[in-house]
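hey
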């Protein structure tokens, strides 16, 4: 396959960016999207030019590092697929492909297609640790968990923190990410002691980072490679409202509930 790429190039966080066009030649349909970028970068390096910077690590859909807006869609055209798991057979010979970084105030561009997603790390850290006194390690089945709750916790825990939900949202809201992180602990008995304070602290940190408000467009779930559902946002809203009304001040300040 031969393709034409229009890639956002930006030297660093301070400089202005612009689209630059490149030919991607002799691309196998079986290559992943990132392998296609590797091929283009080899050509650029051989020509003495700066390769296109993009984020990646596992290249198997589990680390959440990759993420490119492909023709206007975060992670590209295939549903439930990360950029690293997207294959070139999803495109046709002669296609033109526009590549951009995530666009959100809270995710500043560092270089080309790489954005700074440390805002997500700070939201996670604000939630704190689970502080249940467990004594010695309990047997695996000592604490019964209803099958439905275990399934929902696992569904929420599938979030890989990629940020596509923010990139897809017209408000650049991080509600789906925060909802997934809050829910995967909130469905389990071990997550109950700090459930309310965690909701308060993570939502407050999300607001401090400059993410937008959720207005229920649903674009986040559509773009999510792990198909995190809207119902988790409804659950986050319920937890947050309840915690705002009933959580004791010392817990809000980081006590043990
Ligand atoms: S909710 Fe989905 S899109 Fe958002 S960070 Fe998690 S995995 Fe990525
Ligand atoms: S590189 Fe790890 S999810 Fe894509």
């Amino acid at each position: 396959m031969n393709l034409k790429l229009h890639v956002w190039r930006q030297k660093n966080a301070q400089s202005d960016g612009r689209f630059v066009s490149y030919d991607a030649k002799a691309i196998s349909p079986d290559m992943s999207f990132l392998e296609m970028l590797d091929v283009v970068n080899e050509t650029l390096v051989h020509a003495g030019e700066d390769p296109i910077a993009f984020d990646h690590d596992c290249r198997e859909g589990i680390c959440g590092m990759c993420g490119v807006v492909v023709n206007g869609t975060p992670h590209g055209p295939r549903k439930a697929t990360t950029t690293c798991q997207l294959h070139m057979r999803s495109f046709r010979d002669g296609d033109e492909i526009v590549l951009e970084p995530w666009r959100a105030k809270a995710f500043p561009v560092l270089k080309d297609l790489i954005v700074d997603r440390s805002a997500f790390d700070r939201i996670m850290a604000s939630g704190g640790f689970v502080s249940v006194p467990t004594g010695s390690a309990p047997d695996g089945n000592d604490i019964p968990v209803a099958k439905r709750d275990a399934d929902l916790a696992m569904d929420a825990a599938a979030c890989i923190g990629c940020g596509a939900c923010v990139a897809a949202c017209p408000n650049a809201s991080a509600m789906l990410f925060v909802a997934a992180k809050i829910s995967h602990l909130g469905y389990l008995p071990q997550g109950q002691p700090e459930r309310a304070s965690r909701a308060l602290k993570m939502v407050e940190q999300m607001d401090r980072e400059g993410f937008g408000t959720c207005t229920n467009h649903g674009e986040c779930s559509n773009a999510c490679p792990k198909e995190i559902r809207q119902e988790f946002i409804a659950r986050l809203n319920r937890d947050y409202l309840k915690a705002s009304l009933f959580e004791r001040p010392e817990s809000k300040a980081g006590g043990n509930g």
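The beta strands are 3-9, 18-24, 69-70, 73-74, 96-100, 109-111, 114-115. The two ends are 59 Å apart (CA to CA).
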